[in-house]
Design goal:
heterotetramer; A: 218 residues; alpha/beta; ten-stranded mixed β-sheet; 5 helices; 24% strand; B: 234 residues; Glutaconate Coenzyme A-transferase; eight-stranded mixed β-sheet; three-stranded antiparallel β-sheet; 6 helices; 27% strand
Chain lengths: 218, 234, 234, 218
């Protein structure tokens, strides 16, 4: 069975380690915050200028001065701090953020990522994505394995304008966990009940299948 | 020397056509609402606006776009604005999209007297086109120049009559950076107090960077994405 | 993850000979007294110390100089220290003097992931020797590199168990810049409080930059130039 | 009569304008703060991280955490602010400080200044002087016209290692007020009772004397 978006987030949450500072992008990555394993303390960074992001506020307690990078009303946790956008991206560039999770439109088997622009259609802008992918020590992409037309999003080369080159370390889709290696995507885990053949058929970039591929544990 | 102005209209009075403006805020959070309203009322045109976002159709910089006051927009994300899209596609509006961290750091560079900075953001992408590249410790960087703005217009939570500013929560964002970067910096504040009332240890923008300040009024503080949890959810 | 250490001795325990250290403070103001005492007790040698000043003969970094623990000193002003002078003239101590603003900005650059910065300080002087020069807008600048320090050791007024720091008055100086710049940052604080007690709007150093924190004790806070006025003077 | 150090400071204070942000160096420059003209509001910057420096504290009220760039205990005035050293020199480099007053060992008639090092003797370091002279919009040097040996400190070229090149705008000594022009030192004012001839004889660099030179008003 292919994973739900929640399950993709749940699987990514297994990558978290105690003491990690983590930046979660918009969409599936945001859901990762709901699955932080017990006993692990993780601090969420929001690149508009906050460390220690908490859950959404209760209705009636929204504060327009307190939003995340997705412009959603949020709260803070104990030990949080606010800072300006230069310091925010300063700590990102300096490699102080341990893990960045973000969505993508395409990923290449060399780790290139495209997620900000579709030529001919509307250009919304890159926001902080280019800074994050250029600087993060560890980048995990959370996305669907194929686009709505059924075409693979894991490609030999990105066709869309790049957000960053050779930066993605891992990809978690509804079908698989893949690592970006020097020789292409390496299949690490299958979604429960998903056949290796299905993953092979839906991966256009170079895919390394090394022996028996284990199922994910969720 | 008096830095205190009566209101937005008097504070922005000498902003003329073709000016280069920085406008603080992230999304609609921490934007200089009063000054934007005054700029719309003044009707100045051909502006170059440096701001992380371009507002929404009927609020923020969107109000200036609707009036066709903006010639060029320099931003990192403009995805919430249909009028913006229309003007961009019709060629009425010139747009330069740059990474958010680059935008922030180019503001800081201006305020810190640093003519250029190096950032890895955009290396290997179309953002790198025409820019000087340089390798430090085996990693590639782009050289990006400090911004040069005629006016910086920012919004703070508290300010004093000497121009010292304090921001609240994530409404800080680009405001202190732009406050440092303008040739003339105009600050609107929710609470204007006499010099000496703010704790000098907690000033975010020292008054030396601020030439004009006024007490704002009628803040709408619109929320773009109202997300809440019910009392029962985790 | 626990960032809280029992005391200076445990916090600096893994600093070994030949380490590159940043030490916060300006003069004797805001220096990490407890950590310096622990480094003296530990007896580590051949240290490279980056600090604006080198203490006085019997306090601050001067205590480490007396024990001959410092191989190289990178500072902007060292004029209060006879033992320093003796070691410098005898060739025991290597010294690199750099402008104060350059020192500060090279720390900030490290903390902000900027590999190099441009500054006009030192253009046309011996400080410019061997450095890359570059003209922006008709003005000459030197390119200066970000520092690369193994440990940054800073002193704050208040800190919390997540490593968030607040400094007091001019004891802030280089401390927040060095706190951002160390591969491992050790903070000693006068008041250590549980996370959540400090107002997130007024944190000077966010905890992400701080790996170790401890409650300091017995601060001497020596004054170098005690200047006062009598109640009758103007 | 040659000016006293206090009178040099008093004369420099006449250069202050309402609303100026001013950095005063150690020595005579510090004394300028005592002669700020009535009705003029000036904010003093101390480069260790303070805007709004006040007078020395009353005895018993010294705070070791509150010092100026000369390491003297001080106080603050209403509207002051503290900041780190990067912001302090950032505002200096950005030209936000309107006037810098500092001492010098030598000044050349091109505006070069030397004030940080005497080779062969102890090197104390440049502190913030190189940053200040490289960036300040307006630099006034306060110094004695001659050194203790009676040699002119206003030279065709500095003999000591430079602090900065072509940066000094004005010099106030116990004998004269001089402006640095493209053609050398221009004598603007004489100290009361000091003859132009004495100034000429004690100025080694190129000196322009244009007609009758007025006496300073103190």
């Amino acid at each position: 069975m292919a994973l739900t978006k929640e399950q993709i987030a749940q699987r990514i949450a297994q990558e978290l380690k105690d003491g990690y500072y983590v930046n979660l992008g918009i969409g599936i990555p945001t859901l990762v915050a709901n699955y932080i394993p017990a006993g692990i303390n993780v601090v969420l960074q929001s690149e508009n200028g906050l460390l220690g992001m908490g859950p959404f506020p209760f209705e009636g307690e929204e504060d327009p001065d307190l939003i995340n990078a997705g412009k959603q009303t949020i709260t803070t946790v104990a030990g949080s701090s606010f800072f300006d956008s230069a310091m925010s991206f300063g700590m990102i560039r300096a490699g102080k953020v341990d893990l960045t999770v973000l969505g993508a439109m395409e990923v290449s088997d060399a780790g290139d990522i495209a997620n900000w622009k579709i030529p001919g259609k509307m250009v919304k802008g890159m926001g902080g994505a280019m800074d994050l992918v250029a600087s993060a020590k560890n980048i995990i992409v959370a996305m669907m394995h194929t686009n709505p037309k059924g075409e693979s999003k894991l490609l030999p080369q990105c066709t869309l304008p790049l957000t960053g080159k050779r930066c993605v370390k891992k990809i978690v889709t509804e079908l698989a966990v893949l690592e970006v290696t020097e020789n292409g995507f390496k299949l690490l885990e299958r979604a429960p009940g998903v056949a290796t053949e299905e993953i092979i058929s839906k991966t256009a970039g170079k895919l390394i299948v090394d022996g028996e591929v284990p199922e994910m544990k969720l | 020397m008096n830095k205190v102005y009566a209101d937005a209209n008097t504070a922005i009075k000498d902003i003329t056509d073709n000016a280069v403006l920085m406008l603080g805020g992230f999304g609609l959070c921490g934007i200089p609402e009063n000054s934007i309203a005054a700029l719309v009322a003044a009707g100045v045109k051909n502006l170059t606006c440096i701001s992380n976002n371009a507002g929404v159709d009927d609020f923020g910089i969107g109000l200036m776009l609707k009036q066709k006051q903006v010639k060029k927009m320099i931003a990192s994300y403009v995805g919430e604005n249909a009028e913006f899209e229309r003007q961009l596609l019709s060629g009425e509006l010139e747009v330069e999209l740059i990474p958010q961290g680059t935008l922030a750091t180019r503001c800081m560079a201006a305020g810190y007297g640093m003519p250029a900075i190096f950032t890895p953001a955009g290396v290997g992408t179309e953002v790198a086109n025409g820019k000087e590249k340089r390798v430090f410790n085996g990693k590639e960087y782009l050289m990006e120049y400090a911004f040069d703005a005629d006016f910086a217009i920012v919004k703070a939570w508290k300010g004093d009559t000497d121009g010292n500013l304090i921001y609240k929560d994530t409404a800080r964002n680009f405001n202190p950076l732009m406050a440092m970067a303008g040739k003339i910096t105009i600050a609107e504040v929710e609470h204007l107090v006499p010099a000496g009332e703010l704790d000098p240890n907690y000033i975010h923008t020292p008054g030396i960077y601020v030439q004009r300040i006024f007490q704002g009024s009628n803040y709408e503080k619109r929320i773009e994405q109202r997300t809440t949890k019910s009392p029962l959810s985790p």
